[in-house]
Write a structure and sequence with these properties.
Helices cover 41% and strands 12% of the residues. The protein is an alpha/beta fold and 198 residues long. It is globular, with a radius of gyration of 16 Å. The protein starts with 13 loop residues before the first helix and ends with a helix. Bound molecules: uracil.
Length: 198
């Protein structure tokens, strides 16, 4: 049985905290049976930027917070490279529970978790959604190949939000040359952000 602990947002928004608490009790798919902590998300509701990864790993499962392991450290470097920090964005994943042995999330698990992600998007109402890796990219840009579209903003006709696809920061941990690619894509992200806030 999962042990539930709410990861509150940094600005302690009651609505966001309440949504995190609801996610904490979710039993919509089998992933919930194996977790130490649910990982709903972290950051502020008052942001234009939402960052969506794949799913919690071991460290995230232990702490109940997204991107607190090695790939999270690199995500912090990427944010810092454009003058951002975790408390100025909102970070979550397509699935809120750790897939066993860090396997890829299954389609049915992503579908089961999708209502939570949609609720988070509605609440945060971001102008830009940065997808990290192919699983979150596939939700917004189905059928595209990450090597062809990374670092290129696409405006969604349905709601006007900008989708900004990036490689998952974990790729840079086993392929050093990807560090520069991600840093360059984040520089492009900074340009897009300055355009939407002007
Ligand atoms: N990888 C992810 O996609 N999300 C996390 O929270 C941690 C690692």
């Amino acid at each position: 049985m999962a042990y539930c602990q709410t990861a509150v947002s940094s600005d302690d928004s009651p609505l966001l905290s309440d949504l995190h608490r609801q996610i904490d009790g979710c039993t919509r798919c089998a992933l919930s049976t194996g977790v130490t902590h649910y990982v709903p998300g972290m950051g502020t509701e008052k942001t234009d930027i939402m960052i969506i990864g794949e799913g919690p790993g071991k460290n995230e499962d232990l702490k109940g917070l997204p991107f607190v392991g090695a790939s999270g450290k690199f995500l912090d470097v990427l944010l810092d490279s454009i003058g951002l920090s975790r408390d100025r964005v909102y970070i979550t994943n397509v699935v809120k529970c750790r897939p066993p042995e860090n396997r890829d999330p299954k389609e049915e698990e992503i579908l089961a978790c999708n209502a939570w992600l949609e609720a988070q998007i509605l609440l945060i109402n971001p102008k830009i959604i940065v997808t990290l890796g192919r699983f979150s990219m596939a939700k917004f840009l189905p059928g595209v190949t990450i090597s062809k579209v990374h670092g290129q903003p696409k405006r969604r006709a349905s709601d006007g939000r900008i989708i900004f696809p990036c490689y998952h920061p974990a790729v840079a941990l086993y392929n050093g040359s990807m560090r520069a690619v991600l840093l360059e894509d984040f520089t492009r992200l900074a340009t897009v952000l300055s355009q939407i806030s002007s």
